[in-house]
Amino acid sequence: MPLEYEELDYQETPLGALTLRRRRLRSLDNLEVYEIILGTGYLMSSLFTTVEIALADLALARLPADRENLSVVVGGLGLGYTARAVLNDDRIGDLLVVEALPEVISWHMREMVPLGQELHSNPSCHLIEGDFFVLAAEQGFDPGQPGRRFDAILLDIDHSPRNLIHERHQPFYSQNGLRHLQSFLNPGGVFAMWSDDPPDPEFQSLLDRVFTTTETRVVTFPNPLQDCQSESTVYLAQCAP
């Protein structure tokens, strides 16, 4: 498949080499695609956004339709498709997007990625530089209000509960880690997480021990590069009302 690549930015980070690139897919009518690569692994592509959007839509659908001025945290900015899906819900009052890599935030602030201007200019959207997993284990996600509770916390960072970007994230995927996260959710609040792996019965069981209601959804999406349907997983967990 003939491809044209353009490297827009390259930075060395504590997690490895970080690359933002743009390419045109001639086989798809010269479709312009943005990609984020960390080390040798893909973090996100604008060609595949179905599950990132579903992560927000499925989580927010579990909250009562008449519940207004919702406060939401998104862990992982990436190209911003989960954040934009959250903001598309008319009930949203406040969105905090926590991103560990300042380079990714800079891409949005400098409008180097397609959704940059849309997100950073939205007064309801706040881009927070910080390690989601450290904040989840300590004071919480709002720098100005330690311990603040939210209506939903959405996580799209690690590839799966077993395939982590960094081993220091491991304590989060435990009963203690999830219980501490739960302390930052309002009654009836929702935790949702993306995974690139099939449903993991052990992780689902762990969610069952911490949250009142849980669900695992497999989201399918077209993969034009391989001419097939691909799948990812969204875990949903909800606190008692």
Describe this structure in words.
- The strands form two sheets. The chain has a seven-stranded mixed sheet. Strands 1-2-3-4 form a four-stranded antiparallel sheet, with no helix packed on it.
- Helix content is 23%, strand content 38%.
- Helix 1 (50-61) packs parallel to helix 2 (81-87) and helix 6 crosses helix 7 (201-210).
- The chain has two domains: 3-44, no CATH class; 48-238, 3-Layer(aba) Sandwich (Rossmann fold).
- It has 241 residues and is α/β, with parallel strands linked by helices.
- The longest helix is centred in the N-terminal third of the chain and has 12 residues, at 50-61.
- It has seven helices and eleven strands.
- A hairpin with a 2-residue loop joins strand 3 and strand 4.
- The mean pLDDT is 94.
**In total, how many beta strands?**
11
The secondary-structure element order is: EEEEHEHEHHEHEHEHEE
Number of helices: 7
Helical content (DSSP H or I, runs of 4+): 10-25%
Largest sheet: 7 strands, mixed
Q: What structural class results from the helix and strand content?
A: alpha/beta
Radius of gyration: 17 Å
Low-confidence stretches: none
Shape: globular
* Approximate strand percentage: 35-45%
The CATH homology group name of the largest domain? Vaccinia Virus protein VP39
Biggest sheet: strands side by side, in what order?
A: 7-6-5-8-9-11-10
Mean pLDDT equals: 94
- How many domain modules? 2
Distance between the termini: 51 Å
* CATH fold annotation of the largest domain: Rossmann fold
CATH architecture of the largest domain: 3-Layer(aba) Sandwich
Reading off the top of the CATH hierarchy, the class of the largest domain is best stated as Alpha Beta
